[in-house]
Amino acid sequence: MAVDTPAKIAVLGAGPIGLETALYARFLGYDVVLFERGQICQHVQTWGHLRMVTPFGQNRSLLGLAAIQAHDETYQPPADEELLTGQEWVQRYLGPLSQTDLLSDHLRMETTVLAVGKEFTLKHEMPGHEDRGDWPFRILVRESSGEERIELADVVIDATGVIGQPNWIGDGGIPAVGESGLRDQIEHGFPDFLGKDRQRYASRHTLLIGNDWTAAYHAQGLAALMRQDPSTQVTWLVRGDEDSPAGTPPLRADTGELLPERSKLTDAANTWATSGSDGMNYWTGTVIETIRRAKDGKRFEVGCSGSHSGVFPFDEIVASVGFRPDRQLYADLQVRECSSTEASVASVSQSDGRAAGNGLSQPEANFYVLGAKSFGRTGGFLFAEGLSQICQLFKIIGDRETLDLYAGVKSLLR
Hints:
With 414 residues, the protein is an alpha/beta fold. 22% of the residues lie in helices and 19% in strands. Mean pLDDT is 92; it is low at 347-358.
């Protein structure tokens, strides 16, 4: 359903994809409001100490560079082949992008989107009918002051991502016994093992759970910490298969053809896990049944079944079990989802669960999900995939199959 300028587009989430989406819409002349419950790229900041596995050339758009250079003639972008940390990405590209004339006045920071619905229309009415697009979206937001209000928009684009909604540790994808009450004491993020979080993990025994590919980052940091402080211990537990041959690595091998840096990271983590190094225990074919605090409140007591059955003490738990989308935001809209991954796409590959085709159009006219959230629980989303989504999205919104600002923006760059 074509939406002409200057219709109002609400973008939810001022992460990398949210910023690029808002920028694209502004270049086309749409009225844009960008809601962010915290600060710019807040989730990137949580892993800011980590070095990215893709070079800067795959983590910027020509449109973004043009906008920054038009705003600041002295701006010098990183080299396309440079591997940035998350913090450097924010400081040298995403932050400057958010402060350009095209975006700065359209940001609504410290504003939480609580729910999105349709004016005069309920979820069950006119299923899949494009006439639902005749009514604006009602967006319930809450300011940092606690004040709530309704904003209206012609188009809503959800780019809120998935970090912040971790999966559960327990078998079957549900919480282990006792896990819910300890949720905030289990680390689901990206600790800086050699920096600000060193004291928490050094000379202690950490349980690392999962074989999500981000576990390779955790393994890298913990291995480096053990080299600095040999009294540090790690047990890496993966569900795997109880009948898997001894020495089966925790992470799926990466061919390295498209992401050679991730391949190196994965290979190093697999080597470390299966090396038999002092202080390093690798458990496969094991699931967690219970988690509780010891009576003294200082350690976790983790009950396991499978290859390693029993109750074991650990000082810290780092869970690399992936994330899931917060679907409550659009619970009152007609949104299509994959039954296995919760990906909000039209079709999903049966081989790996990743999105196939553009898959952006939804039964709910003028509502779209972009970025990592659109891939549901599958993980591994890349920024370049988000740019491809943005380009396809505005072909749909503008009803112009040939529209591609990324291809036409080179002339704007000096």
